[in-house]
Amino acid sequence: MFEAKTYIDRRNLLRKSVKSGIIVLLGNNEAPRNYPNNGYHFRQDSTFLYYFGLNHSGLVGVLDVEADTDCIYGNDYTIDDIIWMGDQPAISELATSVGVKKSYPLSELSKTVLSAIRRGRKIHFLPPYRLHNTVQIAQLQGIHTARVHDYVSKELIKAVVAQREIKSAAEIAEIEKACDIGYKMHVAAMKMCRAGIYELEIAGAIEGIALQFGNGVSFHSIVTQNGQTLHNHYHGNKLTDGRLMLCDAGAETLMNYCSDFTRTMPVNGKFTDKQKDIYNIVLAANIKAQKEAKPGVTYQNVHLAVARVMAEGLQQLGLIKGNIDDAVANGVVGLFMPHGLGHQLGLDVHDMEDFGENYVGYDDITTRSAQFGLGSLRMGKVLREGHVVTSEPGCYFVPALIKKWEREKINSSFINFQKVENFLDFGGVRLEDDILITAAGCRKLGKHHVPITVEEVEETMM
Amino acid sequence: MFEAKTYIDRRNLLRKSVKSGIIVLLGNNEAPRNYPNNGYHFRQDSTFLYYFGLNHSGLVGVLDVEADTDCIYGNDYTIDDIIWMGDQPAISELATSVGVKKSYPLSELSKTVLSAIRRGRKIHFLPPYRLHNTVQIAQLQGIHTARVHDYVSKELIKAVVAQREIKSAAEIAEIEKACDIGYKMHVAAMKMCRAGIYELEIAGAIEGIALQFGNGVSFHSIVTQNGQTLHNHYHGNKLTDGRLMLCDAGAETLMNYCSDFTRTMPVNGKFTDKQKDIYNIVLAANIKAQKEAKPGVTYQNVHLAVARVMAEGLQQLGLIKGNIDDAVANGVVGLFMPHGLGHQLGLDVHDMEDFGENYVGYDDITTRSAQFGLGSLRMGKVLREGHVVTSEPGCYFVPALIKKWEREKINSSFINFQKVENFLDFGGVRLEDDILITAAGCRKLGKHHVPITVEEVEETMM
Lengths: 462, 462
Known about the structure:
38% helix, hydrolase (chains A, B), Aminopep_P_N (chains A, B), metalloprotease (chains A, B), manganese ion binding (chains A, B), homodimer, Creatine Amidinohydrolase, Chain A, domain 1
């Protein structure tokens, strides 16, 4: 936890950014796994953590804009609980530890909200993503659960995004801790990777590292020799000589700040020339992104600059033909990289994605493209100092997608499908780093450099 | 997955055990962690797994008792999904793989249920433990979510318990696989345990092992130098010379069968005489349980036999005084072991606890005691061949509980509180194995023997 002043300052700023009313921030509750008392590892809501810092289930924070006060609602443990659970802090002590002067039992919350509604005051809440919180909001507001999302406060979303997206030095230090755990995970994966081992063994081992040094993985790791399948959480394959293994994994610190790296490596420890050709295009794209990212530039334009580097590389290999500018403008690179260059990163690995991607990655100036590929870009807007984003170019050969484009003649004047078909069994390459936008440009986060060049990866795997 | 015949047979038997109506078995859905698309590791409902074996989210199985048919409801992936996720089996293929001939989109389910309700047929469902399923049942039945539990089918609960609690040879083989992962975890914990290491490092490492070789831990591990705190999931302490570390952890196989072991070890690798005194009482209790457990005996009586062994040991140390039979009958051992001897184990680490403990551990013949300690026993009823239970005696010195009993003069004629106070900083010891009730008695599960004697533990830690 940060010191109380950090949370007091954050709440003060939020109360000033919202015109009027009360702001209700719901913490998370235990989530049952296979029976009521066998819960998943508790994960607090990130916005609740940002403003209240308390990593306990069943809490709600309320900020009163006009009265300029904050309070915490939650239920104390009973003496019987303490026999089984050991000493537990009272809710009032938890509140005090983060500079909140008032606390009440949870049953008081509905009275507070009801009284505000009766006086015609605005109730601000964020989009719930757990059904428990959807139901809680519906009950507090006296509305049907199906209508909860209509009542979400856009004013609150915008105010929270404006605060959370600019990371303080202390937050950056936490993200760097997460990066250092990520470094350990990725080096371990490189050292374990060999023909005959199951993907699951590597995925489990790196998740163990994330749990040893922090709060576990920041998302379900992708560890696969089928990197061309983008949303691939299957870990059942035995690694095969000649394939590439793609490892996309990150950690959370005990304060829930995240990292997110991707590396791709040859299962047998040595890249073939064909693998190097594609790999080095992606590496050049990764370097290009870090050269272009700086305050004042949109990340959409950084994505396009990266797409151009990829198009040039693919043209040299004969997979793309025609005018490069036209190819990029027509979204040809989307066939090879159907996803965006990156997303914001912080207390969530896709930071604040629960609010809706467009509130976080776009604004009145930069709107989301409708083009296949570029349209998947989560973070498109102007970069500012203090933003933390991922830079994750990739190049994949997705058989179903290639066949679809060929069949539907999409961008067929730019693509040499005959050559592309030589790569149908290639798989995919992605190289992802976490970068901080600085006054001068950007810098990669993490004390340790995760091996990335062909030589570094091969050496680590030896 | 087992072969289709296994699931067909299980469903046939269930349809025969329930008099009439339709049986609706809800699978689980993805559970969001910190935003909608960042879910927890998917865990299928155990009863759904038992009857349908399909480890996919968003499925519902329906058994029609009179028509003697089964079907699966679920939604197929779209072609766009497949571009991102790779080839996915159709619902009809999933159904066929477990011998179910009919499958429908999920939207058809409400029609099926509504039509059965209209014809006055009974709708059987189990107690939901995830809010998503509570809401789904409420909507299907047209009732308020708060009333769902009133509509639960006790007939179905009893029929499912009767089937699931007798483990087949194939199930026992799976549980033994889980035990072998548990063996690896506990030996690793013994080897890592030393002063100066954080509990979290050990907890993370053993969870990593569970993820490398199976589906992860079967419950949130307890790894603590404060074993006297029974519900202790805090892993923040640095281990201290002189303390005992208690490690209660188990694994799930990829088919979701569970193991559950506890071992207790001296942080510095050598038990003191005082630690050995208590440890050997618990070890004797563990051995006694395995001597007594056999078909026809209630597990409540095995608990009481174990309590007697503990009372004798504690009397020899001067902590308990007076007549041993009276001490046991009065629940004196509850001060030192406030929990029960064990619970059933299978597809859940507390098998079928979602139905309610009394449906699983008690019946018309054996009812739950109201006495502190014995009343916490989860499995009390007559043991039968094919039951799998944990045997987990423990001895703890819980300061808050000791002070309460002393203050309230509970069982004061049997307890030498002055001597007990010498143990206030002792911590706790628990030794837990998983046992199968056989025709002749019982046997410990797992190919490998998890070190348990003082000598074995000390040697493993060397």
